[in-house]
Amino acid sequence: MKLTIKRVPTVVSNYQEDAGERPRGGCGRNCLGHCCLPVSELPVYAFKANPTKLPLQEDAVPTDFFINLLLGQWEDRMTQGLFRYDVTACETKVIPGNLGFVAQLNEGRHLKKRPTEFRVDRVLQPFDSAKFNFTKVGQEEALFQFENSGSDDSYFLRSAAATVADRAPNVVAINVSPIEYGHVLLIPRVLDHLPQRIDQESFLLALHMAAEAARPYFRLGYNSLGAFATINHLHFQAYYLTVPFPVEKAATQRIPLAEGGIKSGVKVSKLMNYPVRGLVFEEGNTLNDLANLVSSACIWLQDNNVPYNVLISDSGRKIFLFPQCYAEKQALGEVSQELLDTQVNPAVWEISGHIVLKRRDDYEEASEASAWRLLAEVSLSEARFEEVKAYIFDAACLVQSQVEEETDDAIYAPVPVGPSAVGEGCLVIP
């Protein structure tokens, strides 16, 4: 049975309403497509290549350059009037409770959208160049290319050719309908027309971006199709919010691994006492080790048609993976009208505890109970989660030990607090 639901996806680009094909000879818009980008120049941020070890929090000496560059360029696009609204003027509060869910009131965001028919029962769908994709974005919305430096140092070039040795560039661009301060899109190999599908290379690129930011308050997120991705062109989202996410404060329980079952140093846990069941991957000997393991899990999920969301946290050291089923339940009519009326589609940011509300009444009445009630609809049942976890472990070559860990081994692990890269005016005050 084909499952579809009427969707109103967020407009992420000012060119999204015009999704038609563009002539090969040039579109006249100076876009990110084949007609314009190969003969264009864009700034380049080159990140450190192949770090041998993940930076330890106590030893890290983070640079402010990347995060200041990104936020500075984002603010420059704000002064140019490229955003559809001023997200910094949106009311935001931390909801009282054990986890501190974050609520934002953005009454105009759902009005700045166009209706579309979106299929929710297929996580993998072929790229369709006739529909909106990021090659149709104007270059004024792009901040810079994000490329491997090939060395142990990072550097920045104010202008460089957008294609080198026939390799498509990775591009960081603004989201013109931002959820929060500094909301950007990381688009791997923009000219290659990759569908929304994670592989090891793209996931490693996202980890490098988190590591370069070196700030616990800068996170990256990923939504698969069927888990509220709205554009079938490979991309990650990221933004800066100066409070811990509730999922980062939630208790976790280590999953014991059999002797020799893992050599990468990656530790695997499951969330405890959180409304959405999920897995947590952290540490590891290298970024490659962490990327290999988590991408293997993502590949199994998407190849087996299980929608999922990913949060990259703690400067790339911690990954939250959430298999989910909300869109399917919604299409089957199994979600209550009360929740549907909120118009909240629980993607990675909502699941992580940052909930954008469209109606003032919902914002003013927001509580930990109402957030929990919404997110509980996202979660797989315990039996299905355990089944999926077993398949993920098999795909990632992990062997769970038969030795059970005590429940009180669950740990409370708040996100590390680092120095703010922005002024006090951008802090969320409970």
The helix content is 10-25%
Gross geometry = globular
Low-confidence stretches: 4-8, 55-62, 112-117, 406-430
Strand content: 15-25%
InterPro entries: GDPGP, GDPGP1_C, GDPGP1_N
Domain GDPGP1-like N-terminal: 66-239
Protein name: GDP-D-glucose phosphorylase 1
EC number: 2.7.7.78
Task: Give a description of the structure.
This protein has 430 residues and is an alpha+beta fold. The chain has a single domain (37-50, 63-396), classed as 2-Layer Sandwich (HIT family, subunit A). Helix content is 22%, strand content 21%. The strands form 3 sheets. It has a 13-stranded mixed β-sheet. The protein has a 3-stranded mixed β-sheet with strand order 3-4-17. A two-stranded antiparallel sheet has the order 1-5. Strand 15 (308-313) and strand 16 (318-323) form a beta hairpin. Residues 4-8, 55-62, 112-117 and 406-430 have low confidence and may be disordered.
